[in-house]
Design a protein that fits this description.
Layout: H1 2-10, H2 17-69, H3 79-91, E1 95-99, E2 105-108, H4 121-127, E3 132-136, E4 141-151, E5 157-168, H5 170-219, H6 236-283, H7 289-319, E6 329-332, H8 333-350, E7 353-359, E8 364-367, H9 369-385, E9 391-399, E10 403-410, H10 417-420, H11 432-438, H12 444-454, E11 458-464, E12 468-476
Parallel strand pairs: 7-9
Antiparallel strand pairs: 1-2, 1-5, 3-4, 4-5, 6-8, 9-10, 10-12, 11-12
Helix pairs in contact: 2-5, 6-7, 7-12, 8-9, 9-12
The structure holds adenosine-5'-triphosphate (ATP) and magnesium ion.
Amino acid sequence: MKRLINYLKKHKYVRSFRLRIFALIVLISLCSGVIMRRGILDSYLDKAIKARTSEVVNQMKIVGNHLIAYHYLQDTASDVINAELAQLSTLYDGRILIIDPNFKIVKDTYEISTGKTMIAKEVIQCFLGETISNHDNTNCYIEIAVPITQLDEDGTVQVLGVVLTSVSTDGIITNYSNLNRQSWIIEILMIILMIGVAFVVSAVIVRPFDQVTRAINGVVSFEDENPVVSDYLETEEIVDAFNQLRSRLKVLDDSRQEFVNNVSHELKTPITSIKVLADSLNSQEDVPLDVYREFMQDITEEIDRENSIITDLLALVRMDKGAAGLNIENRNMNDLMELIVKRLGPIARKNEVDLILESKRSVMADVDEVKITLALTNLVENGIKYNKHPGWVKVVLDADHQFMTVEITDSGIGIPESEIDHIFERFYRVDKSHSREIGGTGLGLAITRKTILLHRGSIRVNSVVGEGTTFLVKLPLSYIV
Ligand SMILES: Nc1ncnc2c1ncn2[C@@H]1O[C@H](COP(=O)(O)OP(=O)(O)OP(=O)(O)O)[C@@H](O)[C@H]1O
Ligand SMILES: [Mg+2]
């Protein structure tokens, strides 16, 4: 049984929502049909038996009156009564016994038991004034005992005898059987009809899902730019979620495409320069040594550039693996910042930029030293690179009980407001030609932001064109996995 259920569960069609609805409707209509049929038939049988009983009881009461009027209990010779009893016996397809107070059967319409004594429970109860009726379902008859009563002068009811009647229920049973047969036919027709209805209803119910599936299939390849529209309230949420997913995928797909384009472009540029330089050296004969050296110097710079792009890209790709790639250790951030500023000192001096570090307190934090150094170096280096000459960059390190902050402010060229949202994108540079001259790849801020987010920190930027820029980095002192 368990195996059968498991097999059914796995089977494609049993898992079908539509089939289940179809089966449910058929089952409900089948059960309700059977219950209704049984209810109607049982109620018919009950009512018919009661009606027949009450009819016979009334008839026998009339007979009782006739029996008294003709003194039949004393003398059974009355032709009128005998004819009446015979007629009723035939009418009800049954037997009528007249019993006197001595429990003697004075008349049996079957003429079998006349003269015999009948002491039955029903007869005794009947002599006490009760009308008794019993339905024998197995032998298909109703037994009815009616007292023959007379009102005395003092107003008391006297039971003079009993009319015991057995009435056949064959007629009722035949009607019941006919009705049963007819109801079977109706039920079978109903089942056929309900199968049709269930088929249509199940198709209508799953139509919204079919519509969604068709629509999703139609747009899944981004060929159809229009969002899917739900005609049905029930599938509106699915459709909304799908549309959101689709636009998110579209954004991801666009950014992936753009990234690939940028990577190939950025990687090709230094190679093209190297080729041009090498070709021009090759095409000249007897190149003077200083020209040769100059060209080789340019080629080395291009190779360095290519190398730094590849290094940055690898750093980004490694960070895509998430926080698992972090090597977290508790570090003295004052020492770390001092080292960064010291390392960048020569570039700052070369660019005539004053580099100031202000440590407001001693700060210890859980960081990946290598990655966070790279991220903060890029911010300070940007401050130096995109600055005026002369200019200044101020780095302020501070902390509270939960977070440390590094504020890097420069007196530089600033970033236009419209560009601020883009500077963290990969390969994005505000002034392409200027940046190229400076030598940036446009990956620095993307790496910085990713590193900070992996440390569960945040980065904000404020800038005024021509006045300067402030980057504010906030990092938790304790790294929670
Ligand atoms: N402090 C700043 N002032 C003005 N512009 C800035 C500043 N920092 C960044 N930018 C702008 O944002 C762009 C992106 O910076 P990012 O650090 O990502 O790249 P990069 O410095 O050009 O190259 P890389 O850092 O990869 O060597 C820069 O090209 C520059 O146009
Ligand atoms: Mg940079």
